């Protein structure tokens, strides 16, 4: 079984909680659109978002973590994210997952993931080398042919034991304590050094949503692609990733 972990930022640290909620609702619909029912979703949040979508495979965990004691706002946000991912991974144990995947709350994922993992229960895992990048409202989508996992946090699927969970997890530590769960681009090499090499997922696994107004990093430069990597956002891609256009609001 594949368990998705979605860390959701708090209203306190959102530029627009309404926007965060919209993005999250699309994300959770995408995650739950799997072609196999052999999955669960754990959302870790300070406040449960008010959305209309419900699914029996979703579990919400609310936390009251204090803001991270970091001077850099990006490190502060990353630490909060790391705490929530760790919390979700610990909770996931009760579902006896074969694999877990952290998903950023504004991204979309392929509906083929759960079925693929179900067919390979003993694998060490996969990293998404090829995926898509999308700017909200565009009629185009961009293919990222290599190194998708280095830029997008929705990228690693690991066998549950390879999360290397601490026996007594702590949720009041600094950035370094949660680094393994945050530095998504380094997981592949870390596991390779432990002789647990994860493989490249054999199909595009996720859509990285850019310039939402809620990204931790200014990622507008990551839309500067060659025109040869651009294609029309067709219905097939929309259906596979649950990528629909969000309503506008002021």
From TrEMBL:
Alphabetical list of CDD domains matching this protein: Glyco_tranf_GTA_type
Stored InterPro entries: Nucleotide-diphossugar_trans (IPR029044)
Domain of life from the UniProt record: Bacteria
Protein name per UniProt: Glycosyltransferase family 2 protein
Originating species: Komarekiella delphini-convector SJRDD-AB1
